[in-house]
């Protein structure tokens, strides 16, 4: 059972709390929280060294790295909500310069991610001086998949990516697929360290409206106008949800990524008037699931022709797209005798 604590112990306007005053989770830890007065639950996170390792490993151009960083934050926020052994997978397939983003979270704590992009398309876009998230992605789809293992059916939600950001697409997913009023904020930046080095950072906050009375979640104004006609006009606008939206709209991108703020302090800034409770944080790690055994199993599923096509200089070499680790195999181990 998760332990919780009330984020209190200092007076606003009199002094700003010192880091560690109530046990900050720090980088690469997800902080679940609850604001019971507003019927809200959510999670907040700041990613630092782990994210920088993922992005730096591939030396992505800066616009590509920013997009993948957002995908990582979103995946971590949603993946850490799984209550079972499994995976949460985010994937885009689009016609823009960045035609694929993949980030997957394996419970309880492992994240891996990579991006695929077209160098020529990216250069052409940069030449126009109009590089933004929407133009980088182009048109296509965002797929959010929950995989509970080989003996369970996958659940997948699909959102059209056509003129919207990843953040906006995530809101559409929750409105259409889960029909739970949900809002979130994502931010990405580079931090300049002592000595001039730079490190990627990202942060995010995710909040859902979960009142005891189910009818409060069926209102058209909460679900973006997608409610049943029978519900229209029956219930008044819910002040709790509207206040949450107003509070989240005040969050600055810098607050989400600033290591001197931290998730707990930001939650206090937003919700101290209502009382906010934080639960045990969840550490996340840059950990790939590739292995010699997994890739060997994949190769054993190849036909003899596919094995021969994979041979280079007498060996089969495979590099993991996520972590860039290389594996080498003897083709004779996968070919029928005499081939």
UniProtKB/TrEMBL annotation:
GO BP terms in the entry: protein refolding
Cellular component GO terms held in the UniProt record: cytoplasm
Keywords noted in UniProt: Chaperone, Cytoplasm, Disulfide bond, Redox-active center, Zinc
GO MF annotation terms: protein folding chaperone; unfolded protein binding
Pfam families the record matches: HSP33 (PF01430)
InterPro entries listed in its UniProt record: Heat_shock_Hsp33, Heat_shock_Hsp33_C, Heat_shock_Hsp33_N, Hsp33_helix_hairpin_bin_dom_sf
Protein name (database record): Hsp33-like chaperonin
Biological classification of the source: Bacteria, Pseudomonadati, Pseudomonadota, Alphaproteobacteria, Hyphomicrobiales
């Amino acid at each position: 059972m998760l332990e919780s604590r009330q984020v209190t112990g200092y007076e606003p306007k009199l002094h700003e709390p010192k880091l560690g005053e109530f046990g900050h989770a720090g980088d690469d830890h997800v902080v679940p929280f609850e604001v019971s007065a507003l019927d809200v639950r959510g999670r907040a996170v700041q990613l630092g060294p782990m994210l920088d390792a993922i992005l730096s490993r591939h030396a992505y151009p800066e616009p590509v790295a920013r997009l993948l960083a957002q995908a990582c934050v979103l995946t971590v926020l949603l993946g850490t909500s799984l209550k079972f052994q499994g995976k949460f997978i985010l994937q885009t397939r689009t016609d823009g310069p960045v035609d694929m983003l993949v980030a997957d979270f394996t419970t309880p704590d492992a994240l891996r991610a990579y991006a695929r992009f077209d160098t020529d398309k990216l250069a052409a876009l940069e030449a126009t001086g109009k590089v933004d998230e929407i133009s980088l992605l182009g048109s296509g789809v965002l797929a959010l998949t929950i995989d509970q293992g080989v003996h369970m059916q996958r659940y997948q939600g699909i959102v059209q990516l056509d003129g919207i950001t990843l953040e906006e697409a995530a809101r559409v997913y929750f409105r259409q697929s889960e029909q739970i009023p949900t809002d979130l904020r994502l931010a990405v930046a580079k931090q300049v360290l002592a000595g001039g080095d730079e490190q990627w950072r990202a942060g995010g906050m995710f909040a859902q409206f979960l009142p005891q009375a189910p009818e409060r979640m069926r209102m058209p104004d909460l679900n973006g106008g997608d409610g049943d006609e029978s519900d229209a006009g029956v219930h008044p606008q819910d002040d709790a949800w509207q206040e949450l939206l107003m509070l989240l709209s005040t969050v600055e991108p810098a607050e989400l990524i600033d290591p001197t703020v931290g998730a707990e302090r930001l939650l206090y800034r937003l919700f101290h008037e209502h009382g906010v409770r934080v639960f045990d944080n969840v550490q996340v790690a840059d950990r790939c699931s590739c292995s010699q055994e997994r890739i060997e199993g994949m190769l054993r599923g190849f036909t003899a022709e596919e094995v021969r096509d994979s041979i280079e200089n007498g060996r089969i070499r495979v590099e993991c797209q996520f972590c860039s680790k290389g594996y080498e195999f003897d083709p004779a181990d996968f070919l029928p005798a005499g081939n």
